[in-house]
Design goal:
50% helix; binds flavin-adenine dinucleotide
């Protein structure tokens, strides 16, 4: 296996890295304080083509391979998970369902505006009573004439308050088919839709998570995505496809933390010498780098198998599980290497430490990834 990058892949990764390091990172202190990403930063991201990476060329995107998308997400992870999460919700879980299952008419209506960044996308499956047990969603869609009427509450939806299109998973069960879910494309202007609580969070600031409320929310039949009753498989595919991208963002965050930590270790002096000369610090850096390298290989492996149509759920889960746990270790070590300085608000290491925590929770907790891997082992 060879993950040497082609000239095009290297140029893509360098362009995103340059943008994240020089345009996004300098704004992170303000983004943290205001919990808002400036419109100008989104406009710059749009000009760079970041909103269109998952969208086919005929609708204005660049339809990157899964591997190239992972490279983009890896570079996005260099500023933590706030800005990266905003792009990720849009280019991953927010748009993958429409790209995979949409009719031509649905794609024509939404994808060009999504590729340009005019329309931001979100994905809503989680509910107060349906987290890891996502199949137990209660939001219900009742069909009457040529419309569906949605009732229920979604929560923790990334970018939900600012989204122009939300992929919503709802129950369309009947007494004959009690377990059926379906997928709907909901615009915030649809009657009966409103944004509820917008949560303040310990990390991923700039990309608030919101509660979305559906009260007899009127959704035209032509906004159902895919076949009625096939929503569970669609949702699992959307989440499965997004997991290597979470892993990639973790790898990028680890790489940035290693850069920060090695710089600090070279310059901070105690007992008359740079702390990097102490073996205890060298061992921490070595473990950080080794876990990051392993996470990068698992991630690239999952993404390249996805391009070949051969990525199994367990390979994807291994990448997500390992990379998010590697990041937890790397972020914790980065704090330890800086000592008290890391604990002061405004130090980027503290932001990574808080952001990192969510990667073991969203898009399937670490326990759920282990269940997927364990069940696959027992099945084979
Ligand atoms: C910042 C952020 C962004 C998010 N963005 C979105 C979004 O855009 N769209 C969306 O739909 N959702 C989103 N979520 C929701 C996220 O996917 C859920 O929080 C996650 O799936 C876990 O669900 P829960 O929080 O209800 O925890 P629970 O499911 O209640 O889990 C609590 C604990 O129990 C464990 N557990 C549960 N079941 C089992 C089991 N069978 N075996 C072993 N352990 C188990 C879990 O692993 C966890 O440790 C987001 C959440 C956050 C925090």
């Amino acid at each position: 296996m060879d993950f040497g990058l082609t000239t095009e892949e290297r140029a893509l990764a360098d362009a995103v890295k340059d943008f994240v390091d020089n345009r996004v990172e300098p704004q992170m202190v303000e983004i943290e304080a205001t919990n808002r990403i400036p419109d100008g930063t989104f406009a710059e991201a749009a000009a760079l083509g970041l909103f269109g990476i998952s969208i086919p060329e005929e609708y204005g995107g660049t339809a990157l391979t899964r591997f190239s998308r992972a490279l983009v997400h890896q570079m996005l992870g260099r500023s933590g998970f706030g800005f990266a999460g905003a792009i990720a919700a849009h280019t991953g879980i927010g748009s993958d369902g429409l790209v995979a299952l949409g009719t031509q008419e649905q794609k024509r209506r939404y994808l060009p505006r999504m590729a340009s960044g005019e329309l931001r996308a979100a994905f809503a499956i989680t509910e107060p009573e349906a987290g890891s047990d996502a199949g137990s969603v209660r939001t219900h869609a009742r069909k009457k004439g040529d419309r569906y009427y949605l009732n229920g509450v979604k929560r923790f939806i990334s970018g939900g308050a600012r989204a122009g299109l939300i992929t919503v998973i709802a129950r369309t069960n009947t007494t004959e088919k009690p377990k059926e879910l379906s997928v709907f494309l909901v615009e915030p202007s649809f009657p009966g839709f409103r944004v509820g609580a917008v949560y303040d969070t310990m990390g991923t600031r700039g990309q608030p998570i919101a509660e979305l409320v559906f009260e007899d929310c009127e959704v035209p039949q032509q906004n159902r995505l895919g076949e009625e009753g096939k929503g569970w498989l669609a949702a699992m595919k959307i989440l499965g496809d997004a997991r290597p991208l979470v892993a990639a963002r973790c790898v990028g965050a680890c790489e940035r933390l290693i850069e920060i930590s090695t710089d600090y270790a070279k310059n901070r002096k105690q007992f008359g010498r740079a702390i990097g000369e102490f073996q205890a610090i060298q061992f921490m850096l070595a473990d950080m780098a080794t876990r990051t390298e392993a996470a990068r290989w698992l991630t690239y492996h999952a993404a390249s198998l996805a391009d070949q149509g051969r990525a199994t759920p367990e390979v994807i889960s291994m990448a997500k599980l390992y990379a998010s746990e590697a990041l937890a270790f790397v972020a914790d070590s980065a704090v330890q290497i800086q000592g008290g300085s890391a604990y002061v608000t405004g130090n980027p290491v503290g932001r990574f430490y808080r952001d990192a925590r969510v990667t073991r929770i969203y898009e399937g907790t670490s326990e759920i990834q282990r269940l997927i891997i364990g069940r696959a082992l027992l099945r084979h």
